[in-house]
Fold this protein.
Amino acid sequence: MTGERRPGRPRSEESRRAILAAAMDGLHEHGYAALTIEGIAARAGVGKQTIYRWWPSKADVVLDAMLDMAETRIAVPDQGSLPADLVAFLGESIRQRGQRPVLVGMMAQALLDPAFAVQFRDRFLFSRRAALRGILDRAGARGEIAADVDPELVIDVVYGVLWYRLLLDHAPLDEEAGRQLAALVVRAVR
C-alpha cells in the first residue's frame, strides 16, 4: 500500500497553506466561536469541499494552523544552560499570547468533543511537552537537574502555570512571569 495514491486530487501545499493562514486570520478577526468553514474557504479561495476533504471540522483546521505556528515561531533554544534555555523558551511561548483566543477556543472545543480532545492532546499539547522535555533532558545531561527529579512533573508545573494564567487571565502572563517561572523551576530541580 505504501506509495499508492488515494482517490481524488492530490493535496496542494499551496491550498493547504492558504487554508491555514485564512483560519488564523479569521480567528484573529472574529474569534473561535464565529469562525466557520465557509469563512475559511472564502478567505483562502478554495471550496468548502476541499477543506472538508482534508479536515473533519474547523477545530481540526485550527489545530493544524496552531501546530504550524508553534513549529515555526517557538524555537527550542539550546543556549548551554537550563536557566537561559527556560527563559528563552518561556519568553517565546509567552510572546505568542496573542494566540490566547485561539488556545482558549481549542481547549473549550476539547472539553466538548472527546474525539477532538484526543487530537488536541496528542498532536498539540504533547508536541509542546516534548519541546520542553528536550530542554530538560539536555539540562539533565549537563548535570543541572538532580537525579531524583521527575521531568514529567516539572513539565506539568510549567504548563499548569501557563494554561492556568491563559485560561483564567487572573494574573499577568508576560515575560516577567516567564522569568519568574524559569527561576522557580531552576531552584526546584537542583
